[in-house]
């Protein structure tokens, strides 16, 4: 077989591979190339869509890493739960200082500060009586502010 014949056979073989990869049913060269172009455009759109999904999931991951604070009013005091995926040095101290400023005395608490930060505390009215009449939203805002001060 001549050099020209081998080149032609190789080109035909490559064209058939392109046809197979792009799932084309075309028989002539031009149609195979057009189908391949459309296939490449579809792949580009899929990549763009997946990149957008990844970006969205990264944003939601960042949002999920924000601390979760719940405060429930009890008969005399509050049940305070704090959860954060990140543990920052000084976080517990900052939250306890916020309790003190509010006039809350920690009556009972469970804390875990390994990889994440978890706090469950029962805060009651200290002897000064400052916390009397305070609502759960005020306590929650004070705890969130204490967390934000540490993370800055």
Walk me through this protein's architecture.
This protein is α+β, with helices and mostly antiparallel strands. The protein has two domains: 3-63, MYOD Basic-Helix-Loop-Helix Domain, subunit B, CATH 4.10.280; 68-151, ACT domain (Alpha-Beta Plaits), CATH 3.30.70.260. It has helices spanning 3-21, 29-64, 91-102, 136-151; strands spanning 68-74, 77-84, 104-112, 117-125. A four-stranded antiparallel sheet has the order 1-2-4-3, covered by helices on one side. β1 and β2 form a beta hairpin. α1 packs across α2 (29-64) and α3 packs antiparallel against α4. The chain is rod-shaped, with a radius of gyration of 32 Å. It starts with a helix and ends with a helix.
Concise synopsis of the structure shown:
The chain has 152 residues and is α+β, with helices and mostly antiparallel strands. 55% of the residues lie in helices and 22% in strands. A 4-stranded antiparallel β-sheet has the order 1-2-4-3, with helices on one face.
């Amino acid at each position: 077989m001549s050099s020209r014949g081998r080149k032609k056979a190789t080109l035909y073989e490559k064209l058939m591979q392109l046809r197979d990869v792009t799932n084309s049913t075309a028989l002539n060269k031009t149609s195979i190339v057009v189908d391949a172009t459309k296939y490449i455009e579809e792949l580009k759109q899929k990549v763009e869509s997946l990149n957008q999904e990844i970006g969205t999931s990264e944003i939601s991951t960042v949002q999920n890493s924000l601390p979760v604070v719940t405060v429930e009013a009890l008969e005399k005091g509050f049940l305070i739960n704090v959860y954060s995926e990140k543990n920052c040095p000084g976080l517990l101290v900052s939250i306890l200082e916020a309790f003190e400023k509010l006039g809350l005395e920690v009556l009972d608490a469970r804390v875990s500060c390994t990889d994440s930060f978890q706090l469950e505390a029962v805060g009651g009215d200290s002897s000064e009586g400052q916390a009397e009449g305070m609502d759960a939203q005020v306590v929650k805002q004070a705890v969130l502010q204490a967390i934000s001060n540490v993370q800055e």
